[in-house]
Design a protein that fits this description.
Radius of gyration: 24 Å
Largest sheet: 6 strands, mixed
Shape: globular
Helix content: 25-40%
Strand content: 15-25%
Structural class: alpha+beta
Number of helices: 10
Number of strands: 16
């Protein structure tokens, strides 16, 4: 299942396809007892997608069989043991993808000539993705970081491993010469290669980068390349050979501190906007401003959801399942803001007080 949404991947997903491009969305659950319903719900929504394909006169028999085959292949790939809060299946003639999201999605089936990406975009923004590079003299490991976890990433040629290193760590410790590991030319070349690979990856998918290692490794890393100037060093050795839990625990205090600073910064910007009359709040006002491209900053509480319908002039409250109801209006707003260059910040629940979970700062 897919997790990481890069700009190039998003562009590929948005590419027009031969009709029908099928998007299947369903909420999932991480824990018992809620996750007991997930397998039945998933089978039902896929069955609904097949039913819509059968009933659509614009879909030829050959193409219908092709897409149904891709839906079955996608369903076989789903491992509900590792699902998060939402699941998205894309299927089109000759292709399929399965995405696990750390953000809930409404249950729905959409047949179009493009895949429905707004929920992926919103989940990616909410996750606040970052990179972690754990360096040592014989291995450089890349980690993909999100809201509550890190996982090892195989992008960009990582991990990098030196196959011909012959260190005797115990002997080096006895004679007190361990720092020499990070003074030899082979190690310099090795970390320089890692710097080159990481620079290329950051050009393709820019994110905040944390670099972990012992002090000697971090010092050499700063010396041999340019990436160190744009990253945050974390003095913690051994993580290049560790598991994701150890890496997460080492990063967690820094991430929590950064989250607090970010939330405080958003609160200050919203307070300033009130004084300058560039403040918008509530889903209707924020939606109107987003459509006009007027939002510079969008703030959304992490678990804020609302269902609305458009009465022609405004968004009004609606009940899930109502005709023309829009259950993922928040994700629509997030995607629209990102399309128009606005900054999107997700903040803890309760941060926005009486502003109905969503607010923004206007450009003018």
């Amino acid at each position: 299942m897919e997790h990481a949404l890069s700009p190039s991947t998003l562009a590929e997903l948005r590419r027009p396809r031969p009709y029908p491009a099928v998007s299947v969305l369903t909420p999932t659950h991480r824990r018992e007892p809620d996750n007991a319903q997930d397998s039945v719900r998933l089978r039902n929504v896929v069955a609904e997608a097949k039913k819509q394909l059968e009933a659509d006169p614009a879909v030829t028999r050959e193409r219908r069989s092709d897409v149904i085959r891709e839906l079955d292949r996608a369903l076989a790939e789903v491992d509900l043991t590792y699902t998060e809060d939402g699941l998205v299946i894309f299927a089109a003639p000759g292709e399929h993808q399965v995405w696990s999201l750390a953000r809930s999605v409404p249950e729905r089936v959409v047949l179009s000539d493009t895949f429905l990406t707004r929920n992926l975009v919103s989940a990616h923004a909410a996750e606040r993705a970052f990179w972690v590079l754990s360096i040592s003299a014989d291995r450089v490991t890349l980690w993909n970081g999100g809201l509550d976890r890190v996982t090892e990433s195989r992008y960009g040629g990582f991990p990098l491993v030196r196959r011909q290193v012959n260190f005797d760590a115990e002997r080096l410790q006895r004679i007190g010469d361990m720092p020499s590991t990070f003074r030899d030319e082979d190690t310099k070349h090795f970390l320089r290669d890692a710097d080159t690979a990481m620079a290329a990856l950051l050009r393709e998918e820019p994110r905040q980068l944390y670099v972990t290692g012992e002090q000697a490794a971090l010092s050499l890393w700063e010396e041999v390349g340019d990436v160190a100037r744009h990253s945050i060093p974390v003095r913690h050795g051994g993580l290049a050979h560790a598991g994701p839990d150890a890496v997460w625990q080492a990063l967690r205090p820094l991430l929590e501190a950064e989250s607090r600073r970010s939330t405080a910064s958003v609160a200050r910007e919203l307070a300033s906007a009130r004084g300058h009359k560039t403040f918008a709040a509530g889903v209707d006002e924020v939606w109107q401003s987003a459509r006009e491209g007027r939002l510079r900053l969008l703030a959304v509480e992490e678990n804020y959801r609302t269902t609305v319908r458009d009465d022609g002039d405004h968004l009004v409250p609606a009940v899930t399942g109502d005709l023309d109801s829009r259950e993922d209006i928040v994700d629509e707003i997030v995607e629209q803001c990102l399309e128009t260059g606005a900054e999107v910040r997700f903040v803890p629940d309760g941060t926005l007080g009486d502003q109905d979970g969503i607010a923004g700062v206007l450009r003018y």
